[in-house]
Design a protein that fits this description.
The complex is a heterotetramer, with one copy of chain A, two copies of chain B and one copy of chain C.
Chain A (H helix, E strand, L loop, with lengths): L7 E12 L2 E12 L3 E6 L5 H8 L7 E6 L2 E3 L4 H6 L2 E4 L11 H5 L1 H6 L7 H15 L13 H13 L5 E5 L7 H16 L3 E5 L3 H7 L2 E6 L2 E7 L5 H9 L20 E10 L6 E6 L3 E6 L5 H8 L6 E7 L2 E2 L5 H6 L2 E4 L3 H5 L6 H5 L16 H14 L16 H13 L5 E5 L7 H16 L3 E5 L3 H7 L2 E6 L2 E7 L5 H8 L10
Parallel strand pairs in A: 3-8, 3-9, 6-7, 7-8, 13-18, 13-19, 16-17, 17-18
Antiparallel strand pairs in A: 1-2, 1-4, 4-5, 9-10, 11-12, 11-14, 14-15, 19-20
Chain B lengths: L17 H7 L3 H17 L6 H26 L7 H17 L4 H26 L3 H20 L4 E2 L5 H8 L1 E2 L2 E2 H19 L1 H11 L1 H5 L5 H27 L1 E2 L7 H11 L11 H20 L4 H26 L1
Antiparallel strand pairs in B: 1-4, 2-3
Helix pairs in contact in B: 2-13, 2-14, 3-8, 3-9, 3-11, 3-12, 3-13, 4-5, 4-6, 4-11, 5-6, 5-11, 7-11, 8-9, 12-13, 13-14
Chain C lengths: L12 E6 L7 H14 L3 E6 L5 H13 L4 E4 L8 H9 L3 E5 L10 E4 L2 H16 L4 E6 L4 H17 L4 E7 L4 H14 L3 E6 L2 H13 L5 E5 L3 H9 L4 E5 L1 H15 L11 H4 L8 E3 L2 E4 L9 H4 L7
Parallel strand pairs in C: 1-2, 1-3, 3-4, 4-5, 5-11, 6-7, 6-8, 8-9, 9-10
Antiparallel strand pairs in C: 10-12
Helix pairs in contact in C: 1-9, 4-5, 6-7
Classes of the chains: A alpha/beta, B mainly alpha, C alpha/beta.
Bound molecules: adenosine-5'-triphosphate (2 copies) and magnesium ion (2 copies).
One magnesium ion (MG) binds next to α1 of chain A.
């Protein structure tokens, strides 16, 4: 990374921002240079997204300055930010569901367009061009019909079409698999070479160290340090973020013999009309099973199918030796089998309800006394216990979930799953947006649960996580299990090989 | 970390002083506005603060109060019901018609309430199973129920003067100085307010309305919840219809024309969201009281008919604006 | 194809077109219309719109015309919007008679109604007779509906002109809604403990008003126009003093006669200039159908449900 | 991977045969239902397929068509307007009142339309700046505007028989056999349908309604969009009011009572979503036609009034159900 650092394009001076009693940013200073890829790291709730929202004009700072090209500016709206050449990929996907992919991508362009009439053909043609670099999404499809990962890609494509000098990417790879992430990094490097400055927020150290020029660390709303990545080690960043050393990112794997012969889950010949076919596998007691695959391979569909959340599924499922005849997801929960959704905003949390009532939602009866009366005390105690376990950072337990940072919302979603003491949990992208510290806490919790005999199945797009946490990884390709890897075979190369289309390469449509 | 609460101290919310908690409540703004109107009216008219006037004013909103309970719960679950006015009328008409055909009035009333419940279930079916929107289904039912009222009465009000006194007692009697109607109203309000705040059953209504998909992913049978709230709303219409019948001693096929908008407005003023997920019985009742208070006051002050609507609309707009700002400042 | 005699030809059809067609007011009117038609061997159709919607009523009227009826007895929801459709009908040879509401600027053949002024005058005199000529009184009203409006404004004007000591202390719009009437009457009684009488131009509001009277144990004198079974019972019980009811049957009967006779000008050759002027003397330009006073004594005759037993409403 | 296609074929949508595209359209279900009703009616009544009847039927929905255009656009942007009926009435009343006070009728009409635009802007202000919900703001305006109608007329219709013939021509004249009203209707429908489908300006309405936040992030001034759609809806009410005035030669303070529900229903039947983001003018117009066709048909068949509402409501429910399934199968 021997980029010649040029002039500072954006400077944040002593910027503060509070939400009521919560001080999200406290006198932050920050510099962005022309043509650099500048990573920002920090715990959940450190204030990263808040700072970006201020830069994009979505939020107004309480005090402090934004200096662009040496001139202090007041950015009052995203419209203005756009005029100033700032592009932003949001942490939370914000797309228009009833509108086509192409229109979503070019919404900003349409907005400033001088022409009166829409030229849909042109839009779709150009959208195809944009996607040529990224992924193959049909631009005429309505966004509401896309999976969450594809929506993430659309969100990225949207920012790429902007004619901007500063591009902000707030955890863009959280829902992407390795392939798409690598494509994105290629594009980023390309843009940086053209002199565009990029702010890149991520919790994945590997990405930061492989692709960025500098890294700034935030903690508790304060800027801690900025370094060239060449000068430091990932552990230094983690240390600065968390304020302590995390020596072991992933917990110990199951010890030799800890995985018993008992099966927790057995799936045989599971099929769904269009989404997946003839899926069979087993999960042993004490084992953590991973599921890998490319975007749209059908991983989520399979586990949702197992717990009867979606789809018209045929096939047999045994839980702890008992053959299940589930009619719906309620039956599944009753049996102790729960699913953590990959789309936390869409179906994971109740944004406008309190943290405590989110955590208790899976089985409110648990916090209710006789006559089905909810005991507010018990409810808050439950949320508090789980929140502490997951290192949840919040104002008060009666605040709405919408006031939490992305990663903390994810923790609420996980707490909800844990609240019912399940016998088997399917976790779909469980650590999406979660910081390194909390992530390793979650991994530890998962291992402990597995040791206690709870079945754990993890779907993740982050291969290092799967490799680090799981004892065995199933790979799904186009709705079928294309293989599995254990022990020494668990390498990114092997998984990628099984996941990608090797034969019949051309048959995409 | 002064921007986060230490979780160990998190459940201290219950120790906050009562006044502060009151101040934080969603409903406080409305209470303030209503009290202000009360104060103004007490000065404006010497007759305002009389027992008889208070009694008459409360009688005027008591039965609508039942409807607003059902509507609020339905709104919280994410639905809406335009048929409340005509289903209430239908309850009167059917019970009255059965009574005139010789059925015991209590049995007739039970049958009418059951019919309304059935109508609610029918709407619930179309919404949850067929997948139509509440708005359009309840609009169709509004028209059909009104048609049924016409059919059963030939458009003529049914005179039910012969209803037995013990039946009329529900609508016209008093316990001590308190009219039964008000007692029924209070019982329903307190019961439903409590249940909505405290029971697991009704909590699921909030979950469903807040994010139906997330609720389904939390194992809540959201369709069942919506089915039940839709049905409950119509059942309450049935009960309200019977009380009105007992009170007026007649069944009017044209009763409650346009009532749906008043009821929805009351619930919304009281904090219910048209997008579901929030609302409270207390708030909705305050909304009904506010609307009714304004009407009663204008009548008491003998404001010209030609000005009343303008004033009424303006007060409504002013009230919701003030309430909005009061809530914003606290939020 | 004009008939030879006074009797109808087979298939000769007369239509009665109204708005808010489910309203009970029309029921006895149509019975009168039908009975007259039957006497002449004519057929009748009850038509119009169930809604309070001028556009829909005009559409239904025009659809009636498509069927080329012998004549239409029309209650125009508003006067002027019907000018063009009525004129078109008349030009095409269909006789149009209006009832209970008029379209005076159109070429309609005739108009039959009850005299709201007369009702109001009668009511005013009765109130004065009962409570004396220097007392407080109130009215409920229904702005926007012309006959109800007239009943109220005419009474107030009459009082002002003839009994200057009668004081109007309450005037509230209740729009035929009994709960609104309950609220308004309660407030009026609260604000004016001495109010002696209340005049209500329709029966729906009277039901609400009488509920207040009973609850407040007030001795206010209630008088209203039209009647419902409930107000009838209250008249029997003495809670409502009396009601003035337009003679609906006569309205329908004479309404039919007016249309039918207009179709048969040639059965009568009167001593006038009709052959040169074209003005047909059998066209009756205006008729008052009169009104009935319902009191305790004659209440039994005004139970519409009893009257309708065994009759077909349509 | 069924949500991805071969990129080379991506823009092939326009090559699909016309019939197939027709079949895919959201509106096809409604067209089928309307055609079916047409067919049934042609057999049921010899008068149905006459020019006079067609004319009467189209006159019955033509002006409401303008209102439904405004409502649909407003719904797409995520709003709703309950005041359409009374604002339309107010336009008539104000223009009529000005005319009777000696103002040139064209000027009076322009002033009335400007007033309605102002009312829309006022509502838009409360929604976008104060932050109240469309529902409650427009409800208050509905009451206020109706009150203003009463105030300006004393509750009595204004007779405008003296309007000059060239003015009445807008409402009563014909071009060849075609009434001007229908011509105006067609012009508005075609213009707005085209604009909504094709212009960048109106696409922003879809974006705003579909996800206001996303639209704002893309630099769209969503508040401005909502302000404008709210205003446009009221302006169209003003225009409709003037046409009605010219057509009827009178101004009725009670005009359009309850019209809001019919108009919203028509838009929703035509595919507009109450949550914003979708809808079409063509669909909404088909919705108006369907509702009007049913009413007209019942009148033509001399169906007993006591049955009409029941049948009307049932047909409405059946139609939306059928349409729903037709769309589902295609979707
Ligand atoms: N709208 C809001 N209302 C109240 N508090 C808020 C709001 N938005 C953010 N916060 C608080 O501000 C703090 C910073 O949040 P922010 O979203 O910037 O964190 P982040 O660094 O992006 O975290 P993550 O890695 O989880 O995305 C958090 O404590 C959060 O709870
Ligand atoms: N509701 C739906 N309608 C149509 N297709 C769907 C629907 N949900 C998912 N799909 C499609 O089914 C396929 C499998 O999706 P799934 O979400 O299971 O993939 P995945 O392996 O979990 O990948 P990712 O979540 O990363 O996209 C994808 O092509 C997806 O677009
Ligand atoms: Mg963030
Ligand atoms: Mg997935």
């Amino acid at each position: 990374m021997n980029i010649v650092m040029q002039d500072v394009i954006l400077k944040i001076e002593n910027l503060s921002k509070s939400f009521g009693p919560v001080k999200a940013l406290r006198g932050v200073n920050f510099e962005l240079k022309k043509g650099e890829i500048h990573a920002i790291a920090g715990e959940n709730g450190a204030g990263k997204s808040t700072l970006m929202n201020v830069i994009d004009g979505i939020l107004q700072p309480d005090s402090g300055d934004i200096v662009l090209d040496g001139k202090a500016v007041k950015i009052s709206s995203p419209t203005m930010a756009q005029q100033l050449g700032i592009g932003f990929v949001h942490q939370e996907i914000a797309l228009c569901p009833d509108v086509s992919v192409a229109e979503n991508i070019f919404m900003a362009t349409t907005n400033v367009s001088r022409s009166w009439l829409m030229d849909y053909k042109k839009l779709e043609r150009e959208a195809v061009d944009v996607f040529r670099q990224l992924s193959d999404i049909d631009p005429s499809v309505l966004v509401k019909n896309l999976s969450i990962s594809n929506q993430q890609l659309v969100e990225i494509a949207k920012a790429l079409t902007l004619d901007c000098r500063i591009l902000i990417l707030d955890e863009p790879t959280a829902a992407l698999t390795e392939t798409e992430a690598q494509t994105l990094f290629g594009i980023m490097r390309n843009l940086a070479d053209q002199g565009i400055s990029i702010i890149y927020i991520s919790h994945r150290m590997v990405e930061i160290f492989d692709n960025c020029d500098r890294v700034s660390v935030f903690r508790d709303g304060q800027h801690i340090v900025t370094n060239d990545v060449a000068d430091i080690q990932p552990s230094d960043v983690v240390n600065a973020m968390v304020g302590r050393v995390i020596d072991n990112l992933y917990p110990e794997k199951a010890a030799e013999g800890a995985i018993s012969e008992e099966t927790v889950l057995k799936v045989k010949g599971l099929s769904e009309v269009t989404r997946f076919h003839d899926v069979s596998f087993e999960l042993k007691k004490g084992e953590i099973l991973g599921i890998a695959g490319l975007i749209g391979a059908g991983r989520s569909e399979i586990v949702k199918g197992i717990c009867q959340l979606e789809g018209d599924v045929t096939g047999d499922v045994w839980l702890n030796g008992e053959k299940l005849a589930l009619r719906n997801y309620q039956d599944s929960i009753a049996k102790g089998m729960v699913y953590l959704s990959e789309d936390r905003k869409g179906d994971g949390v109740f944004l406008d309800m309190s943290i405590a009532s989110n955590v208790s939602a899976l089985k409110v009866e648990q916090v209710a006394g006789p006559l089905g009366l909810i005991q507010t005390g018990a409810e808050e105690a439950q949320a508090e216990a789980l929140g502490r376990k997951l290192n949840l950072k919040c104002g008060s337990l009666s605040d709405p979930v919408s006031s939490l940072s992305g990663g903390n919302q994810q923790k609420v979603a996980i707490a909800k799953m844990l609240s019912v003491n399940p016998r088997l949990i399917f976790l779909d992208e469980p650590t999406r947006g979660v910081d390194v510290g909390a992530k390793s806490e979650i991994h530890k919790i998962l291992r402990d649960l597995a040791n206690d005999g709870v079945g754990i199945v993890v779907i993740s797009s982050e291969l290092p996580e799967l490799i680090g946490v799981c004892d065995r990884v199933l790979v799904v390709r186009e709705g079928r299990i294309s293989g599995q890897v254990t022990g020494e075979e668990m390498t990114e190369e092997n998984i990628m090989h099984l996941a990608s289309v090797t034969d019949a390469q051309a048959s995409v449509a | 970390m002064d921007n986060t609460v230490n979780l160990a101290q998190a459940d201290s919310a219950d120790n906050t002083p009562f006044l502060k908690r009151l101040f934080r409540m969603r409903e406080t703004g409305l209470i303030v506005i209503i009290l202000a109107l009360f104060l103004i009216m007490s000065f404006a008219s010497p007759y305002f603060l009389t027992w008889a006037n208070m009694r008459a004013m409360s009688m005027a909103f008591a039965v609508d109060g039942l409807l607003v309970i059902g509507m609020t719960i339905l709104l919280i679950s994410g639905g809406i019901d335009l048929s409340v006015g005509s289903v209430t009328a239908l309850a009167m008409v059917i019970a009255g018609w059965l009574f005139l055909s010789g059925v015991n009035p209590w049995v007739a009333s039970a049958m009418a309430i059951a019919l309304c419940t059935g109508i609610g279930a029918f709407m619930g079916f179309f919404v949850t199973r067929v997948g139509l929107h509440h708005f359009i289904v309840s609009l169709a039912i509004m028209v059909i129920a009104r048609g049924a009222c016409l059919l059963f009465t030939g458009g003529r009000p049914l005179g039910l003067y012969t209803l037995p006194p013990e039946f009329k007692f529900i609508g016209q009697g008093t316990i001590g100085p308190i009219p039964i109607v008000i007692v029924i109203f209070l019982v329903f309000v307190i019961a439903f307010d409590f249940m909505l705040r405290r029971t697991t059953m009704f909590r699921k209504v909030f979950y469903t309305g807040s994010n139906e998909k997330a609720a389904a992913y939390s194992g809540i049978r959201t369709k069942k919840v919506i089915f039940l709230t839709t049905t409950l709303c119509s059942t309450l219409c049935g009960i309200a219809g019977i009380i009105y019948m007992a009170r007026f001693g007649s069944a009017q096929p044209t009763f409650g024309l346009g009532l749906e908008l008043t009821i929805i407005a009351a619930a919304v003023i009281g904090g219910a969201s048209l997008n579901g997920g929030s609302g409270s019985i207390l708030g909705a009742i305050l909304g009904v009281i506010l609307l009714s208070l304004v009407s009663s006051s204008l009548a008491l002050l003998d404001v010209s008919v030609y000005w009343q609507d303008i004033i009424r609309g303006s007060i409504l707009l002013a009230a919701v604006t003030i309430d909005h700002y009061l809530n914003k400042r606290r939020g | 194809a004009q008939a030879e005699g006074i009797m109808c030809e087979p298939g000769e059809t007369y239509i009665m077109n109204v708005m808010v067609s489910g309203h009970p007011y029309w029921v006895p009117v149509y019975q009168g219309f039908k009975q007259a038609a039957e006497a002449f061997g004519c057929e009748t159709v009850f038509s119009g719109t169930p809604d309070y919607d001028i556009t829909k009523q005009i559409a239904s009227f025009e659809q009636d015309l498509v069927k080329s009826p012998a004549g239409i007895l029309l209650h125009p929801m508003q006067s002027d919007p019907f000018i063009e459709p009525i004129d078109r009908a008349i030009d095409n040879g269909t006789e149009i008679v209006t009832f209970a509401a008029d379209s005076p600027n159109s070429k309609r053949t005739g108009y039959i109604t009850s005299d709201n002024h007369a009702e109001a005058k009668f009511a005013a005199e009765e109130i004065v007779k009962q409570v004396g000529d220097s007392a407080e009184y109130a009215v409920l009203e229904n702005p926007g509906q012309s006959n109800h409006d007239l009943r109220v404004t005419a009474l107030i004007a009459y009082m002002e002109a003839n009994y200057p000591n009668m004081k109007l202390v309450g005037r509230q719009a209740t729009n035929q809604d009994s709960n609104a009437a309950y609220r308004a009457t309660a407030s009026i009684i609260q604000a004016n403990p001495n109010v002696a009488a209340i005049w209500i131009p329709e029966a729906g509001s009277a039901e609400g008003a009488v509920a207040v009277k009973l609850e407040a144990e007030s001795d206010i004198l209630i008088m209203h126009a039209d009647v419902t079974p409930t107000t009838l019972e209250h008249i029997r019980a003495g809670n409502i003093h009396m009601s003035l009811n337009p003679n609906q049957g006569v309205q329908g009967f004479m309404g039919f006669m007016a249309v039918h006779l207009a179709n048969r000008a040639d059965i009568f050759d009167p001593f006038n200039d009709w052959q040169t002027s074209g003005f047909n003397p059998v066209q009756i330009p205006f008729m008052d159908n009169g009104f009935a006073v319902i009191t305790k004594d004659n209440a039994d005759s005004f139970d519409l449900n009893v009257y309708m037993e065994g009759r077909d409403p349509a």
